[in-house]
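Thought: the user wants the 3D structure for the chain below. I'll pass the sequence to the structure tool as-is, report back what it returns, then summarize two notable features.
Action: structure_tool
Action Input:
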Amino acid sequence: MAKMWQKDTGNKLNPSIEKYTVGSDWILDGQMFRYELASSLAHARMLAKIGILSETELADVSRAIRELFLEFGNTITLNVSDEDIHSKLENLLIERIGETGKKIHTGRSRNDQVMVVTRMYERERLISISLEYLDLIDSMIAFARREKGKVLPGYTHTKQAMLITADFWMTAFIEAGLDHLSTFRHVFDLINQNPLGSGSGFGVPIPLDREMTARLLGFARVQQNPMYVQNSRGRFESQIIDALWLAMNDFSRLAADMLMYNMDELLFLETTTAITTGSSIMPQKRNLDVMELVRAKTNTMLALSNQVKSTVSGIHSGYNRDLQETKEPLFHAFDLASGTMEAVAVTLANVSINETAVINGLSQGIFATDIAFEAVGKGMPFRDAYRLAATKIGTIDINEKTIRESIENRVSPGSPRTISMDQLETAVETARSIWQSEKNRNEGILNTLLTGEE
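Observation:
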């Protein structure tokens, strides 16, 4: 199949060079067919407005693009010879509408074509991953409500520090999740700017209406400087992956906690067979190794970020083909985050706290701080109370009253007894409403372009 850049079809690219330079684009790009159709149609409508395409030609392009969408849907299968989604669509249009199909590239470079469909892909995936994260937070809330009030030891330096509850432990990850969603929103707003019409990075000698294509494609604004458009590739992708890593890093800490709580020596955390695997040689083993993979895949996410940053570090301004290597880690990062969120949600639905085991495993020292503050409440300076409590650790009787008072006496905001699950749930529903509105808006824009229906 002819390449967009070929001048003379008689000159054939060496197959080894073709395969090497195409890389994984032919595998990945089929997922972006819908975005290529939509951006091409928006571009065509803009070309008609400035007089490059006639109304008849625009009608032919619109009809052909909508027929292709009806025929193939959101995705299409490519071959190595197709090179990428941009060559594929241009060749399909030329096959169906002839000479008019050759005009569709006017004012565009493959560089800004890559950028616009990537931005549209990123925008949609950030919306979907945010809604998936909110579903995961729902699973965290369900765990916290189900296990509410069950005690756990809080640790510092892997030593028992102060008593907490299972719901207190989980709400730390819920609150962090809401912060991460704010980070996702920041990155979403950053990438939601229109690169289409920036050409190869130096401007185009025709009066393109980039505001029009931004409006048609639902971008919040135009990314003005064409060279910055090219320089932002990889930069934006690394920020997306970093945002995903921040969330993954919390999942890794949650995983580490669960693995410790599930040790045979503790068994504070009980699991079902739905989430544990066995050993091929040791019959007794039921392994919570899904959480070990969560830890490992968090480092994979970090490696993907480093891969993108290393690729773009030190290259010259403007387009360099090095940038092609930022696409695959981006796709991998979204899939990795999505799969991890689902795995963590399933895990949370299949674990519970064994409070009897927890109480049997509590140290006397975990109540020492409570003794110190009891003395403070009677007027003793804290440093004296601290020393007094150290002398009484061996006399502490661990019983229901001791445990209950340790939790109930902590009245500062954010303590185990004062955290409001209702307040967190309200914040979750507010965030869900915002992201669902973005999803509806994005789907509406694409539906209007590709089907002609409002």
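Final Answer: Structure generated. The first strand starts at residue 151 and ends at 156. Strands lie at 151-156, 159-165, 193-194, 221-222, 269-271, 351-353.
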